[in-house]
Amino acid sequence: MKRRDFIALVGGTALVPFGLRAQPEVRKLAIVMAVAKTPEYVAASAALQQVLGGLGWKQGDNLRIDDHWSAGSQEGARAVALEIAASKPDVILGQSLAVIEALLSMTRTTPIVFVHVADPVASGLVSNLARPEGNVTGITNIVPSIGAKWLQLLKEIAPAVTRAALLVNPDTQPDRGVIFLDPFDAAARSLGVTSVKGEVRDLDAIEALMASLATEPRGGVVVIPDAFFASHSTQIVALAERFRLPAVYPYRYYVAQGGLLSYGVNNVDLFRQAAPYVDRIFRGAKPSDLPVQQPTRFDLVINMRTAKALGLTVPQTLQASANEAIE
C-alpha cells in the first residue's frame, strides 16, 4: 500500500460518525430477590456489582442489570419469572428456592446462579453438587451441621432453656426440613433439650407455637432460612419479644430488628461469592461445569439490649466470638 493511500485510510476512519463505531457487546443480568428492598440486600446487590466491575463488567457500558424485588411468594416468583423469560437475559441470579423453581418452570436453557438455597440436591435443582448438570448452579446458604450450631448457641446465651422448637415451613422445605432437623434433634439429645415440633405455615401458626412454648418456662425458638420467614421477619421478632422467648435467627437483619442472636451467612459476602460465576458464564462457561459452592463466611451477631430485656447475661466467651454486638 502506498503511503498516501495509508494516510487516506487512517484519516477516513477518523471521519466515521461516533454512533457507527463498534460498540461493546452488552450482557444482560437479571437479579431476582425474594425479599423486599432492605439496606442489607441493597448492599449485597451493590457488592455483586462491585465485583463484576472489577472483572470487567460495567453497568451502563457492557452490562445491563434488571433487578426485581419481593418475589419470595409463589405467586410473586411466577410473575417475575414470566417477565424475565420475555426479556431473555444472558444470566439470572436468583435468591431462594421458590424463585429458582419458578424460573426453571419458564426456562431450562438460560443459565441460573442461585443463592440462599439450603439443599439444592434434595430440592431437585441439581443432580449432584460437583457437576450440577442442567442450567443451574450457585452457592448454598448453610453447612449441614448448622442446625446443631443454632441450638448450641441458644443454650449458650440462654442456659435455662430445656424446650426448643425449630420453625420449619414443611411446604417450602425439601423433606420437611430434615437437613436442619436432623442435626438440631441430635444436638437436643446431647444438650438435654426437648425438641418441640415446629412446623408452621403462616403467622397464626407461628404465634400459636410461641404461645405454647411460653406457657411453661425455659422455652426457646430457632428460625431457619426461609423466604416466608424472611418476608415476615419483623412480625416474628415481635412475637418472640411479646412471649419473652430467647430466639436464634439465620440472618443479621433479624437482630437489627430486635432479635436476640443470629448465626448465618454474611449476605453481602455471599453475593460477592456469586459474582465470579456470573462472570464465567458471561465468558462462555456452562452452569453444569461450575460446582455448587458452600458459603465461606458465617457471622455471629448479638443484640445486647434484647439480652438485657430478657434478663440474660451474655457470656464473655460468646461476646468475644461475636462479629458484632448491637448495643
UniProtKB/TrEMBL annotation:
InterPro entries: ABC_transpt-TYRBP-like (IPR007487). It comes from the Bacteria. PANTHER family: ABC TRANSPORTER, SUBSTRATE-BINDING LIPOPROTEIN, ABC TRANSPORTER, SUBSTRATE-BINDING LIPOPROTEIN-RELATED. This is ABC transport system substrate-binding protein. It comes from Bradyrhizobium macuxiense.
